[in-house]
Write a structure and sequence with these properties.
With 46 residues, the protein is mostly helical. It has two helices and no strands. The longest helix has 29 residues. The model has no long low-confidence stretch (mean pLDDT 88).
């Protein structure tokens, strides 16, 4: 299974289990990054 196929399959499962609204909410939450990546990276790798 390619990464593209895996991603599409995962979206189908989420839509089936959560419905269209739940899938949209999940995508909105998972795509919006938060925080300060540069600061966090410096803390983690210092």
């Amino acid at each position: 299974m390619t990464d593209e196929e895996f991603y599409r399959n995962a979206l189908e499962v989420l839509q089936r289990e959560l419905g269209a609204d739940g899938l949209a909410r999940f995508l909105r939450l998972s795509r919006s990054g938060g925080g300060d990546y540069t600061r966090d990276r410096e803390v983690l790798f210092s």
